[in-house]
Amino acid sequence: MTAADARTHYDKAVPNCLKAIGGLVLWLFAGATFLFAPLMAMASDPCGPADTELICTAAGQQLVVYIPLGTALVAAPLGTWGLVSRRETARLAWLLAMAMLVVTWMVTSSIATPPS
Question: How far apart are CA 69 and CA 48, in angstroms?
């Protein structure tokens, strides 16, 4: 193996390792979103019958449960496609998937704010 061959092998290994790490981070974040974000519906526990906060309604509780489930199921394959695709703009799919998961946490957290 010549020095040029070793350099070519190294040039291929680094991007593949970064893609693997990016995929692992994506799937862990999507899994955490799928498993733990719907638990924010328990913020409705202190709601009384007269409370009008969104989390105190059935629709608000369903939003808090179903938004993370749907987003995680869409974001994980989308981001994975972005990492394995050879298209130049496909990397944006990974960024979009991560942004979708972050926005999901922000939206569900804002809905799940318990009544004062």
Answer: 27
Tally the C-alpha atoms within 13 A of residue 18's C-alpha that lie toward its C-beta.
Answer: 9
* Tokens coding 16: 């593949």
pLDDT digits (tens, 9 = 90+) for 7-57: 666 677 878 888 899 999 999 999 999 999 999 999 888 888 888 889 988
| DSSP string for residues in 26-69 | HHHHHHHHHHHGGGGGGGGTT--TT--SGGGSHHHHHHHHHHHH
Cα separation values, 14 from 7, 19, 21, 86, Å: 11, 9, 11, 16
